[in-house]
Amino acid sequence: MPLSSASSLSPSRRPSGGLRGRLSRLVALFAVQRSRRRLRDLDEAILRDIGLTRDEALREAERGFWDWEQVRRG
What we know:
About 60% of the residues lie in helices and about 0% in strands. The protein has one domain (about 15-74). By secondary structure, the chain is mainly alpha-helical.
């Protein structure tokens, strides 16, 4: 059977919107976690430019991936 896009599949064979939503949320969670980890590496001048102290940046970097308001709202 040739590969085809999800839009060309019959409705009974298309991935559910629920699965797509969960995958999108998972991708977003990884992006948030990656951004938080990058905060640790920013120098003082950049932190000052974005209005954060070193302690605030470190606190944010230590938050778990699950600690994100968007996840709780679903």
